[in-house]
């Protein structure tokens, strides 16, 4: 392998190395433990700079990786999420007495897995990247080993993750059997007759889609999400709710772009549309009934992946660009929400009840405002980035003759306003309870929440910044 | 002849895999998993992947599962009790759903599978090595990161006390 190929994955190499160093430093230099978060964050910032500094050669490593604008776009927000989650984790680990270097090592490696998935053109590499992401997350979910809920989260994610990996692998095997190649881009041209009929291809495609849908927590593959979200340490939940979904969505976009001409078109898009509608509807309706903030955000995540999938159903360049903007928006809103949840929690064992927020808007104005901004953005109310993202997705659907899908999406958004605004209602319009909850409000967590809130407004007012990047990225996909 | 060997080992592999999942005695689970791995190794050999077949028997059936067996016996793993909460819906659903999938898969895939015969490939260690450091070099290197992550993850969960 030429040295040039190594240069294209410098950000990933940096993160892998720093992860390993942090795991080593934990035993060699325990006095450095309070600085681990900072070191990890600096490494992530360095990786981001590297990603933007090195050129984009396209296909490298013998055609296995695609270092293109799409990869750079997705990497950027994976790295942003990593940065925010690393900062978020420090107070949590300090509080639970688990300031271990391994936490950051696993976090960084999980990020590397997602980054590899996002730029891979080879089904095998996608699978290995997915496993790197998942295995790191299994341990991170259960990191709070003293807490039964955390162990339950790790266990559930392990079982569901293992099952979905098997389904995905079976699908990959069938796709390989149907096309004779593991590469997505070099699948036979649409006009060329398939080696062995379309049924093998469609079955394989269906299985791969099911495997990815588990990661995306799309209905009907969503059942793990609420328990895992609730039980995991909150910084891990923030990471888990954003990064695997982004990576899996990009893989799905590349898959659809490569195989759409081959598969029988109406059947395939019909399947995607059905899953999108089911996810939106189920996520929003069940979220209404939730009393725990983290569980509510889990169901909201299911619904949001449904919205994002609408962009993929529409496809075309505007559809893919809309999905990318959606992912960036979703990252900011979700991390802001989880940062505030993390600050508004008394102990990790306690449930994070929405009713506990009563009256906090006047006692803790900064954090409450950040949470309110995140909720309005998740609901899709202007001038937040959530509105811009939803608008782009639904516009792509309308432009591609899928008006009914856009209508279902808008109706669902209306339903969702109820439970998002209910949180704001509790914050500002309910009296303080007699028992004053002892919230810990670490500076770092407030900083993260503030950064996200500013980002939500900034991108909401000037969506062109991120949209321009997304459009360049979307142009790299064929069709 | 090959077809008979294939059918016999494939059927045995499936049956023993089911036993490995369902049986309540941990020792039986591990032993039947060894049988599964042997049958899979035979299938590898039928496809011409002789090195992989040997590695499967030497490494997986021979080393790893024997280690499992030791652990199960040394730790005196308890027999899984009859579940306190019976879940008839889940149980019958769990039996019915794979059968439906099997029938569907058979109906969809049989015509294409009959039309394509497996062609034995060059499965020597040399050919495998060339693949690993050739087209699959990146995946190969990524697997080493994956194994490191798995190792660290296991140590964290087992050894770390907060």
Characterise this structure:
Chain A contains 20 helices and 2 strands. With 479 residues, chain A is mainly alpha-helical. Chain A has one domain (3-474). Chain A has a two-stranded antiparallel ribbon with strand order 1-2. Chain A is globular and about 70 Å long. Chain B starts with a helix and ends with a helix. Chain B has one domain (2-77, 121-158): NADH-ubiquinone/plastoquinone oxidoreductase chain 6, subunit NuoJ (Four Helix Bundle (Hemerythrin (Met), subunit A), Up-down Bundle), CATH 1.20.120. Classes of the chains: A mainly alpha (479), B mainly alpha (162). Chain A binds chain B through residues 1, 16, 20, 23, 61-62, 64-65, 96-98, 100, 102-103, 105-106, 109-110, 112-113, 116, 122, 124-125, 128-129, 131-132, 135-136, 138-139, 142-146, 154, 177, 195-197, 199-200, 203, and chain B through 105, 108-109, 111-112, 115-116, 134-139, 142-143, 145-146, 148-150, 152-157, 160, 162.
Task: Report a brief summary of the structure.
The complex is a heterodimer of chains A (479) and B (162). Chain A is mainly α and 479 residues long.
């Amino acid at each position: 392998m030429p040295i040039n190929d190594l240069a294209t994955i410098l950000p990933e190499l940096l993160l892998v190395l720093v992860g390993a160093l942090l795991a080593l430093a934990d035993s060699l230099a325990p006095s450095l433990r309070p600085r681990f978060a900072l070191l990890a964050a600096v490494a992530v910032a360095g990786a981001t700079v590297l990603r933007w500094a090195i050129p984009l050669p396209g296909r490298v490593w013998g055609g296995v990786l695609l270092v293109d604008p799409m990869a750079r776009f997705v990497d950027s927000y994976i790295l942003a999420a990593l940065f925010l989650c690393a900062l978020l984790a420090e107070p949590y680990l300090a509080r639970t007495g688990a300031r271990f270097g391994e936490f950051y090592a696993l976090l960084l490696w999980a990020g590397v897995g997602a980054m590899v998935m996002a730029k891979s053109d080879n089904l095998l590499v996608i699978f290995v990247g997915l496993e790197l992401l998942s295995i790191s997350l299994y341990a991170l979910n259960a990191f709070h080993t003293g807490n039964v809920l955390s162990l339950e989260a790790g266990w559930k994610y392990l079982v569901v993750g293992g099952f979905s990996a098997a389904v995905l692998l079976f699908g990959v095997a069938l796709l390989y059997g149907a096309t004779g190649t593991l590469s997505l881009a070099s699948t036979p041209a649409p006009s060329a007759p398939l080696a062995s009929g379309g049924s093998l291809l469609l079955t394989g495609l269906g299985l791969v889609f099911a495997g990815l849908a588990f990661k995306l927590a799309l209905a009907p593959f969503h059942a793990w999400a609420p328990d895992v979200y609730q039980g995991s340490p909150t910084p891990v939940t923030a990471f888990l709710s954003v990064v695997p979904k982004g990576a899996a969505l990009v893989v799905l976009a590349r898959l659809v772009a490569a195989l759409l001409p081959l598969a029988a078109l109406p059947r395939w898009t019909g399947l995607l549309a059905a899953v999108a509608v089911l996810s939106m509807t189920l996520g929003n309706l069940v979220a209404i009934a939730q009393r725990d903030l983290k569980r509510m955000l889990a169901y909201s995540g299911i619904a949001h992946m449904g919205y994002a999938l609408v962009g993929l159903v529409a496809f075309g360049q505007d559809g893919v660009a809309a999905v990318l903007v959606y992912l960036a928006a979703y990252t900011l809103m979700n991390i802001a929400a989880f940062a505030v949840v993390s600050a508004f929690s008394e102990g990790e064992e306690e449930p994070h009840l929405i009713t506990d927020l009563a009256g906090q808007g006047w006692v803790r104005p900064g954090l409450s405002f950040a949470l309110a901004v995140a909720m309005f953005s998740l609901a899709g109310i202007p001038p937040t980035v959530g509105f811009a993202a939803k608008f782009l997705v639904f516009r792509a659907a309308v432009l591609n003759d899928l008006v009914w899908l856009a209508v279902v999406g808008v109706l669902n958004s209306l339903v969702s306003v109820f439970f998002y605004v209910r949180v704001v209602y509790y914050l500002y319009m309910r009296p303080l309870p007699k028992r004053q909850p002892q919230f810990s409000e670490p500076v770092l967590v407030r900083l993260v929440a503030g950064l996200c809130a500013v980002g939500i407004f900034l991108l909401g007012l000037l969506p062109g910044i991120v949209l321009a990047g997304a459009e360049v990225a979307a142009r790299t996909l064929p069709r | 002849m090959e077809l008979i060997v294939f059918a016999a080992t494939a059927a045995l592999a499936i049956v023993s895999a089911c036993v490995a999942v369902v049986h309540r005695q941990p020792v039986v689970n591990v032993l039947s998993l060894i049988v599964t791995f042997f049958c899979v190794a035979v299938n590898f050999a039928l496809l011409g992947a002789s090195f992989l077949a040997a590695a499967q028997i030497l490494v997986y059936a021979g080393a790893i599962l024997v280690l499992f067996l030791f652990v199960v016996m040394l730790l005196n793993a308890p027999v899984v009790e009859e579940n306190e909460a019976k879940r008839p819906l889940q149980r019958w659903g769990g039996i019915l759903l794979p059968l439906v999938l099997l029938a569907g898969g058979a109906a969809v895939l049989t015509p294409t599978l009959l039309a394509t015969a497996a062609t034995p490939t060059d499965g020597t260690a040399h050919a495998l090595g060339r693949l690993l450091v050739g087209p699959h070099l990146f995946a190969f290197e990524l697997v080493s990161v994956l194994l490191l992550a798995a190792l660290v993850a296991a140590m964290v969960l087992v050894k770390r006390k907060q």
